[in-house]
UniProtKB/TrEMBL annotation:
Residues 1-39 are annotated as: Disordered. This is Cytokinin riboside 5'-monophosphate phosphoribohydrolase. Belongs to the LOG family. Residues 11-25 have a biased composition (Basic and acidic residues). It comes from the Bacteria.
Length: 253
């Protein structure tokens, strides 16, 4: 709890689309949980059809808000990294370099690496976008976000990360970051998106995973050598931006 300027205690808040919930109004579950975790078969008939309309409205809001974005790059990474960590410093430099190259920066709008990338972009005069997600422990959009949308459903939000970006850059992170990384490479591998660089930054952090992919996935034939080439790895911000501009069909950069 923190004390706000008018002396009132401010605690956690929850965002549901346009609605902000605070204190006792915060429900114990999230919209994603109600959809995915329901074992009550009767509700599937009575409630899920109506939920589909809410899901649809979330797509409409996302499409409508983001259609006017300039070319953009989605940047992912840990919600828990400290501001002075290696990955936050890298993310801030990356956000700035992308803005200078004319790209908007899209993140999950949260703390840690997301906040650092948004800060870098905003400080460099670029456009900073945050696609937040309703979570039991969310902290609201970080202060560097210029255009923010709060989503209820992870899968709707993921569509926006891919549709409105020219590339993904993935910095060190946990389960959320890995989910976003593997979603992207699966979409590229299956040619759902083309000319879409997926760049890992933090060579030391990702080294073990990449070794495992080579020694287990590749050696056991679960992926091909070409699949591995879908992932590019660098710690050099300028190189990351060059990979993105080289793959960008607009030729504007
Ligand atoms: C954990 C804390 C806050 C969580 N807040 C988040 N806000 C927005 N997006 C998030 C949040 N947590 C995870 N994400 C998404 O997953 C990726 C990071 O997850 P990881 O497990 O930390 O790697 C990130 O790219 C977001 O899209 C309080 O510290």
């Amino acid at each position: 709890m923190t004390e706000s300027t008018n002396g009132r205690q401010s605690g956690p808040e929850r965002h549901r689309g346009a609605v902000t919930l605070r204190r006792d109004a915060i429900p114990p579950s999230t919209a994603d949980q109600k959809l995915l975790d329901s074992r009550n078969r009767e509700e599937w008939k009575t409630k899920d059809a109506w939920r589909a309309l809410r899901i649809l409205s979330e797509f409409v809001e996302g499409f409508d808000t983001l259609a006017d974005l300039p070319r953009a790059v989605s940047v992912f990474g840990s919600a828990r990294s400290a501001p002075d960590s290696f990955e936050c410093e890298l993310a801030e430099n990356l956000g700035a370099a992308l803005a200078e190259a004319g790209y908007a920066v899209i993140t999950g709008g949260g703390p840690g690496v997301m906040e650092a990338a948004n800060k870098g972009a905003t400080d460099a005069g670029g456009m900073s976008v945050g696609l937040g997600i309703e979570l039991p422990f969310e902290q609201g959009l970080n202060d560097w976000v210029d255009i923010g949308i709060d989503f209820r459903y992870f899968f709707v939000r993921k569509t926006m990360f891919v549709k409105y970006a020219q590339a993904f850059v993935v910095l060190p992170g946990g389960f959320g970051t890995l989910d976003e990384l593997f979603e992207a490479i699966t979409l590229v591998q299956t040619k759902k998106v083309t000319r879409f660089p997926v760049i890992l930054m933090g060579t030391e952090y990702w080294g073990g995973l990449l070794d495992w992919m080579k020694r287990r996935m590749l050696d056991e034939g679960k992926i091909s050598a070409m699949d591995l080439e879908l992932i590019q790895v660098t710690d050099d911000v300028a190189e990351a931006v060059r990979i993105i501009t080289d793959a960008d069909p607009s030729g504007q950069h």
